[in-house]
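Progress report, Aim 2. The chain analyzed during this reporting quarter is listed below.
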Amino acid sequence: MIRPGRPFKLASAIILPRAEQIISDITLLLDEVISRLYAHFVPSHFDILEDMRQRLSHECKRVQAVREDMKGLAESYNRFLDLRDEWLRREKRIKRIVGVLGEAEHGDMMREDKEPNYPITTVVLTPASELRKELPLWEAMKEYLQYVPEARIAEMEEFFGFFGVNMENANRQAMESALKRHPETFKIRKQKREKYISLKDHAKEGAWNAPSTTDTRK
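Predicted structure tokens for the chain:
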């Protein structure tokens, strides 16, 4: 008989398994389950061959469809490339023209235009003063010569001078130097003591469209 107040003791102690043993048993069980599942779902080599055949057929059909789509889009894609090239070429010329005109002329154009969405404001985001600084003199000369069949240096010097667009350093010496550095762009014709400057055909961009004529100035 157990006396009151004393803890109860089992006649024979129950030995519980250790945690490591429990984890080991669970791991073995999971491995067995996974192994059986894997063996059940692994496809045979016949199944793999059939899957490969189906994939090959699918890929070939898709290649044919892609080719047809590409044929249909080729014209539009080439048109896109042409438009991109034209856009870049015209944007470059726009910046060159604004650089030649300078801040004053460009500002006058903007003030005179009454349209609410003036195109230059949406295309030319760089200030005219910055474009003027970035513009090489030979490109300014090239732009000027788009509008005349040919010109003398004195005439270009007058245009670029104080009473024209007022471009700094656009003097005779600088223009003579530009002509020597860019023989691929400029053509020089000498008549007596005068030197007449024009553009070579590949440098013309479509402003002066009249055929070349012999100079008649005396």
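The two ends are 147 Å apart (CA to CA). Residues 52-135 form one domain. These observations will guide the mutagenesis work planned for the next reporting period.
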